[in-house]
Amino acid sequence: METKPADAQVAGSERESKAEREKGSKSPSKVIDANAARDAPKSTDPADVTAGAAQQAGLTSDEARARLDKFGSNSLPDTGAHPLRMALEKFLAPVPGMLEAAVVLEVVLGKYAEAAIIVFLLLFNAALGLFQESRAQATLTALKAKLALSASVRRDGKWKTVPAAELVPGDLVKLSLGGVVAADLKLTSGEILLDQSMLTGESVPIEGSANLQTYAGALVRRGEAEGVVTATGGRTKFGRTAELVRTAHVVSSQQKAVLRVVLNLAAVNGVVILMLVGYSWFIDMPVGEIIPLVLTAILASIPVALPATFTLASALGARALAQKGVLPTRLSAVDEAASIVVLCADKTGTLTRNALKVATVRPEPGFDEAHVLALAALASSDGGDDPVDGAIRSAAAGKPVPDAPKLVKFAAFDPAKKMSEATATGASGDAQRIVKGAFVVVVALAQSSPGAAVAAKELEGQGFRVLAVAAGSPTAMKLAGLIALSDPPRQDSAGLITELHGLGIRTVMVTGDAPATAAIVAKAVGLAGPICPPEPIPDAVRPEQFAVFAGVLPEDKYKLVKAFQTGGHAVGMCGDGANDAPALRQAQMGIAVSTATDVAKSAAGMVLTEPGLGGIVAAVKEGRTTFQRVLSYTLNSITKKTVQVLFLAVGLLMTGHAILTPMLMVLIMITGDFLGMALTTDNVRPSPAPNAWRIAPLTVAGVSMGLGELLFCSAILVFGFYRMGFAIGPLQTLAFVAIVFGNQATTYTNRERRHLWSSRPSSWLIASSTADILIASTLAVGGIAMAALPLWLVVSTLAAAAVFAVLLDLVKVPLFRRLAIT
């Protein structure tokens, strides 16, 4: 998330921004104090902390031990799921439960070979699912790794280094250049420059002095200070972010789809199975035949490979994305990328470069741009990581001035004075004083033109951060000019937004900046529409209401994602800071940009490894490609489960016997379900618009295709029973061949929403289909595990299946069009 503490050097522009957010009621410094007070943890005992602050010698060892017992270790709790528990959960879902019941029945009936095959299928499903979840614990691990390993603390009147985990509220801690803030604390003395980008994602560090509240994870870029610990461990702002990341969760649409498909199939097939049992009793079928019939029907109704196929398709999509510079951290993110309808793009570091740059220079009369930059560079530090000084020195280097003054002495930026200054000598040897800082401060020390104030206000109104530069004799300085700083948009941002719009995705910008700054960036990247003012985000907000959400506080991004989801929108969320982690975790498609912190990367569903945002378009297209492959398999699975159960009923009515044995059904499961997983490699077109799992029309389409295949299989059975006069053994083999070949026909019709000849199947699909046909034919002709059939009959059945596929395809195209399955 973005927070925007004012850099004192640019207090003039920040005063305008903060005033807008606070309705003009507070000064900039008071706004900062108010924000710090608001965000400061309330979980520690105020008396303890006050006592620690009063004792400038710090705590005693006994006091520290007592508080450690009271508040606990300064570390995040280990909440990762045990691997054994994760593995056991794979066997408790609906599909595994059905398979486990089938195994029990097979063992009871003494069908140990069939039971072993089903156990293998069960373990295969569990292994693939466990692979997906093995990455889920990375987020909290990264958060814990970001805490400092040690800290300088005053104990028993002496400074000592202790493990960061031993810090307690009330400890007096020293912060030095290059150090990491190990706990939330309130500064008591000293002046430092704090880089909180790990927490906020912002490029501009903040100046810290007494009474400033800072947080665990911040880096000290300059200076030295002391502070009193106010919160540790899970009570820190960092810790609260970790807890929110742990609890933030959105159920995958794939998970919902699998459950609904399984329930739909179970409901329909359950009724058919009950009718089979009732009819079997009615015709006085022996119990020894009824039980295998029921077992066969149960096996026929289980979509064995459906969960595994979802996982495999996502894994293949993830591999394809990795080759394009996008790394999914959880497999479900590949599928979710297909469904997003709104993308929340973080301004800083996402739409912009997250690097300050001199946008324009407004010289005063008697000066030019090059001289203004040269003077400002003399009053800028040539070391450290101050982004303001770095931007100015970089701009000055691009416009060298031959007769620039020579630096004699430099005084670093003073947050109390809100300016830095330098002493230099001009070409004639005269002494010059140069100051750089907030406009209101510098203009009070120098002469300026009447239009200077108007120019400064104009630049601030355009969203720039404005610095003033003055130079001259120590007693008579003149305003040299104004320097406007900005964080420029990325070159690819506008093109990305246009391309996403063409894919049916609306992009909204989310920023902690004031509306004026946000409006400038929005215009530059092509975002047109109203700006949501800096106020609490409405619960029922819709993405089409606003193009920009300005003044967004750290906790608001998570609320914004939830608000969009409440309105039924699938959300993509970009971010780079640690405080973006909860929103990234909650969004269907959380995207961490290449410069993101480890925390943001771990919480996100996808991580961009290349600069810019072009990977988002690739992720959406690959997600939609994966969706189409999974949709084909799901449609095919519904078709197969429909025909297999109903075919048992037709066979029972026709012959009075079970037309398929449990072994034959297991073979159908292997040749059909798992070889059909090759659909995950099929050649498909990515959807032109966001996808959604529409289970009702999908079920209607699958059942309709299944009824068509049922007619084909029934016709083959009629031929074998009445024309050929087959006994039950060869008839069961013929039924097996009819279903295997019929499944091949529907696989090729279901894979293409247009006519089946509109696109070439993938090589893997063709190979698996060929293997499927050869295996079934070899078993049938050779009489392996079944009665033998003549070769001519197997070949004729295959030819009939090919003709059936073409006829069914003629019915499919208008049916799919009517059901809007694209």
TrEMBL record:
* Annotated region described as Disordered, given as residue ranges: 1-59
* SMART domains membership: Cation_ATPase_N
User: Membrane topology type, per the record?
Assistant: Multi-pass membrane protein
Compartments it resides in: Membrane
Mind listing the UniProt keywords for this protein, alphabetically? ATP-binding, Membrane, Nucleotide-binding, Phosphoprotein, Translocase, Transmembrane, Transmembrane helix
Main subcellular location: membrane
GO MF: ATP binding; ATP hydrolysis activity; P-type ion transporter activity
List the InterPro entries hit by this protein, alphabetically. ATPase_P-typ_cation-transptr_N (IPR004014), ATPase_P-typ_cyto_dom_N (IPR023299), ATPase_P-typ_P_site (IPR018303), ATPase_P-typ_TM_dom_sf (IPR023298), ATPase_P-typ_transduc_dom_A_sf (IPR008250), ATPase_P-type_domA (IPR059000), HAD-like_sf (IPR036412), HAD_sf (IPR023214)
Q: Which residue ranges run through the membrane?
A: 115-131, 261-282, 294-322, 645-675, 763-785, 791-811
Task: Give the matching Gene3D superfamilies.
Answer: Calcium-transporting ATPase, cytoplasmic domain N, Calcium-transporting ATPase, cytoplasmic transduction domain A, Calcium-transporting ATPase, transmembrane domain, HAD superfamily/HAD-like
One Pfam family recorded for the sequence: Cation_ATPase_N
- Its GO CC terms? membrane
Where is each Cation-transporting P-type ATPase N-terminal domain found?
A: 40-111
What segments bear the compositional bias annotation Basic and acidic residues?
13-25
SUPFAM superfamilies from the entry? Calcium ATPase, transduction domain A, Calcium ATPase, transmembrane domain M, HAD-like, Metal cation-transporting ATPase, ATP-binding domain N
Q: Organism's domain of life?
A: Bacteria
The family this protein is said to belong to: Belongs to the cation transport ATPase (P-type) (TC 3.A.3) family. Type IIIA subfamily.
Q: What is this protein called?
A: HAD-IC family P-type ATPase
Q: What organism is listed for this UniProt entry?
A: Lichenifustis flavocetrariae
Query: What does the organism's lineage look like at the top?
Result: Bacteria, Pseudomonadati, Pseudomonadota, Alphaproteobacteria, Hyphomicrobiales
